[in-house]
Amino acid sequence: MSSGNHVTETTRAYLGLPDPQRIARINRDVWIGYDRAGKALRRCLEIHEGSRCRDSLLVVGPSNNGKTMIFRRFLSRTWQRQQPRAEASTLRVLGIAAPNGADEKGLLLNILEAAGAPVDRKAATRDLKVVTYDLIRRTSLRILLVDDLHMALRGSRRAVGQVLGRLKLIGEELGVSTIAFGTREALYAVRTEEQFMNRFPPFPLPRWELEDPEYWRLLNSFGRFLPLREPSELDDPVLGTRILARAEGLIGGVAEIIRLCAVEAIRSGAERITPEVLEAIHYIPPSHRDSAATLGIE
After folding, report:
1. Could you read off the pLDDT of 183-240 as tens digits, one per residue?
2. Which InterPro entries does the record associate with it (predicted)?
3. Which of 22, 152, 222, 290 is the most exposed place for a label (fewest CB within 10 A)?
4. Is 232 exposed, middle or buried (0-12, 13-18, 19+ CB in 10 A)?
5. In the prediction, which pLDDT does 54 show?
6. Per residue in 68-102, is it b (16+ CB within 10 Å) or e — as a string?
7. Cβ distance 196 to 190 under 8 Å?
8. What pLDDT band is residue 83 in, cutting at 50, 70 and 90?
9. How far apart are the C-alpha atoms of 135 and 256, rounded to whole Å?
10. What is the reported pLDDT for 86?
């Protein structure tokens, strides 16, 4: 076994543990603070810490490209900051999942449920608005996080306008900033009207490219968190190129492929990620997951 200098000090403590414990470590979610994600997170924190109310943001990019990880990281960071001084009735940051479909009532219900408030699903939208506004005022809510905003923008133009309009009014009437995360569908919907476009300036998270030096730094960062007993040299041009191709340029795919490879490296005894280990894993890219032929079920 190598000296362990290829991993972080925390990860080094796992190198001598049994395989199941090392595999469990690999399967944990780990925040890798690469440049794009760090900038997006800092922008979110600037909104959280700023004196101006109603600043909002749309973090936009392909599915499986790190948006939800930023969403969770921001929630974790702000939760820790608010807890020591927060009263039981204070809720400065609230994270919700977007409703499935353009549904203003569903949006209000999701806000209430995420806050742990009693919910009457049979209530009219106008009544839910009153209850939601009262909750926001009582808890001094400052920031509303909405994950997968594109899911709430699938419907008629009128219904989509009602959802976006409600988020806009929550900001204007109650001083709440909305930080939303979504795909290009969300960006297209926001751009349909100038009032929404101005309200939600985009922060892009594009697909990764081989020419981007940050991609190669990202691979090295991943490698330092893997409890493998030998260095993997993930920045090898052949290996790095194959990983990105299979991941279709998505950081979620890169992370999943590296996790699968790390587990295979432990189980096979290779103890490092190689082109042979990469070929041995079973990974279906997102664009092929609805293909019966790819899944072998024709």
Report:
1. 999 999 888 877 788 889 999 999 999 999 999 999 999 999 999 999 998 989 999 9
2. P-loop_NTPase (IPR027417), TniB (IPR008868)
3. 290
4. buried
5. 63
6. ebbbebbbebbeeeeeeeeeeeebbbbbbbbbeeb
7. yes
8. very low
9. 39
10. 42
Handedness of CA 87, 92, 98, 104 (dihedral sign): positive
Q: Compute the distance between CA of residue 255 and CA of residue 30 in angstroms, rounded to an integer.
A: 10
181 forms beta bridges with 59
Q: Which CATH architecture has domain 35-204?
A: 3-Layer(aba) Sandwich (3.40)
| Residues forming beta bridges with residue 147, ordered by sequence position | 97
- CB under 8 A, 24+ apart: contacts of 75-78: 75/145, 77/41, 77/45, 78/45, 78/48, 78/143
Domain layout of the chain by residue ranges: 9-29+225-295, 35-204
3-state secondary structure 63-120: CCCCHHHHHHHHHHHHHHHHHHHCCCCCCCEEEEECCCCCCHHHHHHHHHHHCCCCCC
Residue range 234-269, pLDDT digits in tens: 989 999 999 999 999 999 999 999 999 999 999 999
Question: In whole angstroms, what is the distance from residue 85 CA to residue 92 CA?
Answer: 11
How many Å apart are CA 252 and CA 57, to the nearest integer? 22
* Beta-bridge mates of residue 179: 57, 145
Is residue 249 a contact partner of residue 215, using CB atoms and an 8 Å limit? no
Sign of torsion over alpha carbons 136, 140, 142, 144 = negative
